[in-house]
Write the structure tokens for this entry.
Amino acid sequence: MPNLYNPYDNVLKVVDHAASLLGYPEKDYAFLKYPERELKVSMPVVMDDGSIRIFEGFRIQHSTVRGPAKGGVRFHPGVNHDEVKALAAWMTFKCAVVNIPYGGGKGGIICDPNELSEREKHSLTSKYIAQIAPLIGPEQDVPAPDVGTNARVMAWMMDAYSMLKGHSVLSCVTGKPIGLGGILGRSEATGRGVMFTVNNLLAKQGLDRTQASVAIQGMGNVGSVTAKLVHEEGMCVVAVSDVSGGIYDPAGLDIPAILAYLRENPKNLLKDFTAPNIQHISNAELLELDVTVLIPAALENQINADNAARIRAKYIVEAANGPTTLEADDILHERGIMLVPDILANAGGVVVSYFEWVQNIQELCWTEERVNGELKTIMDTAFEAVWSIAHEKNTTLRTGAYLIAVKRVTEAKLGRGIF
């Protein structure tokens, strides 16, 4: 459906609400309403047919109060200024709620990466880094993968930045291939963090995870890893979907078989997947299934005022960024549906990106066991903190997460002083 709202308005409303509960006068937190820096760039690329096409992109730093800006770069035709600005702000709060020393940033290029050849994509990536190079670097702003980008694109970004500096700078981006300073466990980190969050939520509710049914909207990196891991934890994944639609089996899907099918060919879509007893459903129908846990792992604004009254899941765990509008939040809360917000649930990716950055700076290599163990500790600690303050203040988990995040960023700013 079309994007009918400005996602940054959501950010402002949530910040105002959290700040009022914390008792901050507006002068103490007003800085949170404005990104520190915004850069719009254009990149001319010679296409394979010899024509020249101009691409537009952005890099926005919402806050560097607690450390370098951190956030992915999105290659998607729907990228726009307000979306990138909102995503940068969410990164500020995400890093704060899990208490890692980063601020928030985000980037994006308006393009369809599926329509670009490898050479065209490489050229576009290199030109983008050349354009935003004055704003980024290990101590300023550290990009990472997002929708439409991956480890290979991160390697190109690292290379382009390094060429400008005259020497290899592994710590300028995260999410790189293992052989170029990447970290073991990074590709599964966001999905693993979602799995830890689901486990923590079910444990708090006294529910046996083997009795829990799960529906996952989106089978990109985050959704597919989440499906794999919650299945391995003994949960019954009854529905998954991608851009082509969803598949549903109330008795449980064969997740390993589905993942193998998707791995066989990047062009494979779930609409073409066949197996006994499965039903093909739409993404909208998946969101409204009667399940224990609904995990939206696609794009923004999927749960909104139009469908919130029809959501039947007992719990929602946001694996995507901003999948639920504020209007839907209110409806879900009134209906007693508990929701774990994106800035907590999907923070596993940025936590392990932080580990990668630390490794690059210190020139160390961690084992995958250590990475996953440290990630679990941070995710469990953050969940407990959010759960505790939400219940202490008798509010939602989203508000609880923002109470922690807004306080940490505001206290840091007040501690530094405003020059």
